[in-house]
Every structure is written in structure tokens, then in C-alpha cells.
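3.2 Worked example (two chains)
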Amino acid sequence: MQDLSFISNMSDEDAYLFKRCVRRLLDTTFLVKDKEEKLYQFVASESNRYDMNQYLAVIGYKVVVEEQMGVAMLQPNDDDKETVGLKRLNLYHFDQRHMKLLLVLWLLFLERMGYEEAVYVTVGEIIDKCRLYDIELTPVEFKKAYATFRRFCLIDYSDDITKEDGAVRLYPSLQFCLDIGQLKQVMAEFVEQGDFEAADMADLEEAESEESDE
């Protein structure tokens, strides 16, 4: 059993931040530095992250921080990844259309990614990219998908997303919301249809290479 006595030794402020971070991660999976800097910085502290992982290990989770991208994320604990009945409980099951839209957002993020500047696209640019791959969603389906993605700190927006000039911010957490297996599955459909571009496949292969190196 994990020793959780460290919790009683925390200052009131640290205990408060600890609880907020844990609850936020359990609810949204991601903490993004550009969105919630105070919570992210708390988790990014090595000592705080160690304590948090001691706590989360009890329920089969761990926190991983990607400092270069400014993203903290909840993942299954290594010891529990293959435990029957536990290994998929933390996953949100996107439907196929949402997965394809996520892929489009991921590709748009990669096209514009820089480590110093925020990444924005317009609703019109998203729609154009979807048309390129024959992804058809109704305005209601787009709106529902955007709301879901915002809940999980993948995107944010304040403009009217029903208009083509509405701005959508793409967070670096998009790079971690689908595993490589899921990406390959979706991309394979595009390849079969002849809709996929060589440059986009290169992006996937690069992402897969980086994941295998970790």
C-alpha cells in the first residue's frame, strides 16, 4: 500500500493545488500550461509530481509531463496497463467522425506548430481541411465535437464557431489525445480512399518514431 502521509504535511495552499490538479486531470486528462499555468507549474514540479504519482498509483494512474510542449497528462500506470477491466477505463471513446476531425486538427496543428507562439486556425480552415479528406459533418455535429474537444483541453475558442472566420486555438495536447494505433487506423481509411497526402503520412511516421524513442 502506498504511503500517503505526505498529504497531511502539505501547506494549505499546496494541499489545495494538489486536490485541484488531481480532480482536473481526472476530469479532463490534460493540463495545458497556456490555459492553466498555475496548475501546470504545480504538476511540473518534480517533487509535486512524485507525490501526485504516489497518490494516483492507488487507482492505477500516473502523471506525465511533456515540458517542451507544456502539457501534463494522465496516463494508465505502467503496472496496470494490461490489467483486465482497468486498462481502458480512462479512455473517452470518440466516434469515427470525431476521430477524423481530431486528425484534421492534429494535422493543422503540426502545420503551424511553433514552441513560442500559440496556434490558431479559423473554422473555415478546418472545414476546408475536412473537405480535402471527404469528412462531412453537419454544423450541429461540428459544434458538439468542438465542445467535447474543449472539455478535454484540446482546443479553445471564444468567437462564434458557427461562422467561418471564427478563431479556434489548437493546444499541443492534440498530439497526445490519440495513440499511434488509432491514428494509423483512421489514416488507413484515407489511404484506401486515395485522399491522404504524402506529407501527412510523413507527419505520422515522425510522430511514431518519436514515441518509440521515449
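3.2.1 Second chain
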Amino acid sequence: MYPLTIFYDSKCPLCVAEMRQLGDLDSCSRLTMVDIHEPGFNRAYPHIDRQAADRILHAQYSNGELIYGLDVTHQAWRAVGRKPWVAILRVKGVRFFADIAYRIFARHRYTISFLLTGQRRCETCEVGKSSQMRSE
């Protein structure tokens, strides 16, 4: 199952903040974060459609199985042993509405990032480093 490779949007301040937090908590090296905007991404991960991964969070287990959206969020936080409440978002009944809310969030994440952080997009955001985020 692990490592879980997460394909994230490094231009989204909220996405980068979550990846940083997960990286800081990943003491067992269960997670690998891959920036979908890195040069060579398509060559390294030809089975991941970059445009699709930019619309909805993608991740891949070590056995090759892909998961998406809140399933990624749930499994990532589970991997680091934190935020057990996220599991409720995967419960039948709640899952349907949570997935709709996630798709709305994903579609508008740059605007939401701007409202919450004052930054719409990052020119260069790095996970695992305290680099300066710059807004467009």
C-alpha cells in the first residue's frame, strides 16, 4: 500500500500548505509528493493525465492503484496518523455530499486560496522547504 504517491498542484497555496503539513508529519516515509507542474512530469508519470490531476487530486499506491479527491485526503492523513475525523467524509451518505463539496473546492481553489491567504496562486511553492510563496 505505501508509499502513497500524491500528485499535487504546486501553484495552489492551500494545496502546498497541506502537502507541507503532511510532509512534516510523515515520520515513517509513507508519502511521496509529486508536483504535477514539474518539468518532465509527463515523462516520469505517463499514466497520470496532468490536466485531470489539475482538476482533482490524484494519488497512487505502491501496487499501482489510483485514488482521487477526498479518498487521497483521507488516505494521506491516515498514513501520518492524524485527523481521524476526515474518515467521516468517506462514510456512505456523507461521501456523496463531501465529494460534491470537494469538486466545488477543487474548481475554485485559487479563489478560495486568495480569500483565505491573500494569495491566488504561487509562482514557486515548494513542499518541504520554507520557500517564499509569491502571488500572481
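3.3 Remarks
The chain has one domain: 4-117.
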